[in-house]
Amino acid sequence: MATEKAAGAGRTQLRIGRLTKAHGLKGALKIELYTDDPERRFVPGAVFSLQVPTGHAWHGKTLELIEMRWYNSHAVGFFKDVPDRSAAETLVKAILWVEQDAAELPEEEDAWYDHQLVGLTVIRDGAKVGTLTQVDHFPAQDLLTVKTDNGDVLVPFVKAFVSAVDIKAGTLTVTPPPGLFEPLPDDAPENAPEAGIPADIELDEK
Questions:
Q1: What is the pLDDT of residue 185?
Q2: Which of 47, 97, 122, 187 has the fewest CB neighbours in a 10 Å radius?
Q3: Taking the domains of the chain in order of start, what are their residue ranges?
Q4: What is the pLDDT of residues 144-166, one digit of tens each?
């Protein structure tokens, strides 16, 4: 599920991929795609903004694509100023963003801008449980903050937790596990999911 963040006036940034691991010895990196249109987004000369931790060597810099190839159904990119495997390994976990006009709607399926999502009514089993107030972007996945009568609840923005987004209707339908929106009963199984963020979510620094 692709999302966006603010850029300059009248512009926005769309998250389209994440660099997952070095590939080979010539500086290539495997790309986890967050776009349904990689042939348009990943063309030679495309320039990406990078989301990396503050203080990282690539923080505040951009990355220019030289070529994207496919190996065993995996996208692999070759980038300017990334000449070898050692350089490529410094970019692992970096998230790729592209800038575009904020007036444009995302063309990818299941892709929304943050400003389209914030304010949506969150529905569970046909009833309102809260309002979406914030979208946070992390390397593993995005997290939605839902304001409820009992406080804020963090919901992973993945199909297992979010079954439908209807911008026109102003709703976002969630299918969370027990305990995310309400306390578990005292006799709940010990291995039942706890409310809040699942343990396997990586909250890497932006």
A1: 62
A2: 187
A3: 4-101, 114-174
A4: 999 999 899 999 988 889 999 99
Cα angle 62-66-70, degrees, rounded to a multiple of 5: 115
What separation, in Å, do the N-terminal and C-terminal C-alpha atoms of the chain show? Answer: 18
How much is the pTM?
0.54
Cβ atoms of residues 189 and 179 within 8 Å? no
114-174 CATH choice from 3.10.20.30, 2.30.30.240, 3.40.630.30, 3.30.70.2740: 2.30.30.240
Can you tell me the distance from the alpha carbon of 15 to that of 157, in angstroms, rounded to the nearest whole number?
Answer: 14
Give DSSP secondary structure letters for 44-98.
TT-EEEEE--TT-TTTT-EEEEEEEEEETTEEEEEETT--SHHHHHTTTTPEEEE
Here the tokens at position 114 are: 């943050």
Helix (H, G, I), strand (E, B) or coil at 28: strand
Q: Homologous superfamily of 4-101 in CATH?
A: RimM (2.40.30.60)
